[in-house]
Design goal:
single chain; mainly alpha; 8 helices
């Protein structure tokens, strides 16, 4: 008697059954959601899920502060702080906080508050906050990061407000009906 090797199908029908299981059928394959959307639409949807503008402004403020802290005006090298360490660390922290706010929107309030505190401190630590421009960019970015709200929460607020308005309108109609009945 001849023994079959392991892993070898006994006949053609077994091979066709296996290949039928491995190949996807038209019924089983669902088209991807993003197939019909352009790159711009997908980016817009991604951007709306996170505090994008606040993070970008915070990061831009950090970049501006970094380059303003490394200035040479003629023979004068402008660098305030403890041997210029603050002029390097503060902008790098602001850049990192801006990127983290975009990457992890769940922690947006923490990153925004820290960015605000560092931006205000940069007024003292980094050439008047990057000559006020970097400080203002980072401050506005931190405020926008803290104030940003996910679309799901915004929708709940609108619906709740709509219910209040609808219930107030119902109450007005009820009072009008009761006054008409008494009259």
């Amino acid at each position: 008697m001849v023994e079959q090797e392991t892993g070898m199908p006994e006949d053609e029908s077994a091979t066709s059954e296996v290949s039928a299981l491995l190949t996807p059928h038209d019924d089983d394959v669902e088209p991807a959601e993003s197939d019909d959307r352009t790159v711009r639409q997908r980016f817009r949807a991604w951007r709306r899920q996170r505090p994008f503008v606040g993070g970008v402004l915070t990061a831009l403020g950090g970049i501006e502060m970094f380059f303003s802290g490394q200035l040479d005006i003629g023979r004068i090298h402008i660098q305030l702080g403890i041997e210029g360490l603050q002029a390097t660390i503060i902008p790098v922290l602001l850049l990192l906080l801006g990127i983290l706010a975009i990457a992890m929107p769940a922690h947006r309030i923490f990153y925004g508050v820290i960015a605000l505190a560092i931006a205000v401190y940069s007024l003292v630590g980094v050439n008047l906050g990057g000559f006020f421009i970097g400080m203002l960019l980072s401050t506005v970015g931190g405020v926008l990061t803290v104030a940003w709200m996910p679309p799901e929460q915004r929708g709940e607020r609108r619906r709740r407000g709509g219910r209040r308005r609808a219930s107030a309108a119902d109450a007005d109609e009820t009072t009008q009906e009761s006054t008409e009945e008494t009259a």
